[in-house]
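User: Quick sanity check before I run a bigger batch. Here is a single chain. Can you write out its predicted 3D structure?
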Amino acid sequence: MALSLRFLLAALLLSLVSACGMSGDEAAPSDKVAASAWREWKRYGGNIIDYGGRNSRNGGGHESRDPLASRIGTYWRAAGHPDWDGRSDKPWSGAFVTWVAKDAGINGQDFRPAGRHAEYMKAMLDQQLAGRPGRYVVKDWRDVSPKSGDLVCAGARAAGHRDARALRTAADREVTHCDVVIDNRNGRLRVVGGNVSDSVSMSYFPTDSSGRVLPVRGRPWFAVVDKRD
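Assistant: Done. Predicted structure follows.
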């Protein structure tokens, strides 16, 4: 009887892990940017936020407590603020993405180090508008199916379709958050971001049949930052 109960509990645990869309031995993504973000989530996060279902899970580190608080200091150093860490009461999602890009070997010309998402995005858009786009190209979120290593970015409000010039005009006042895309398959986009639920968190977003992200409550989409290999 006890043995049967143990098997039942083990099966239940495996089903819960599968429901969350991941396994304990899941391999890191092949894309270097996605892999860097994924490793930070595995090491310091663990939170899952499911915008399209019921697979949310809260179990990650907290920004105000070590080891994550000190690690956030590492993110801030990459963004040019060596005196800040997780206890500094500063929004750190932009610093997280900056550190991830640097850790993956993206140079400062292609990804300008910044603590605010709008700053690195404006630099990318300036290159586009000058006719010399770099490694990253910013596009309206409706125009592209995000892939591993891209960024998906939210704004302060929902808006109509925008070209690069309109995105540049709106970026400074509207861009609020960007996540790194881990993968996009089977109607679900998995992304990792910093300062999400005070941690490094993975979020699930629903997509359409073409892999384009769908509107969700609480996350007005702004742009997809397309990483060109």
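DSSP finds six helices and seven strands in the chain.

User: Great, the batch can go ahead then.
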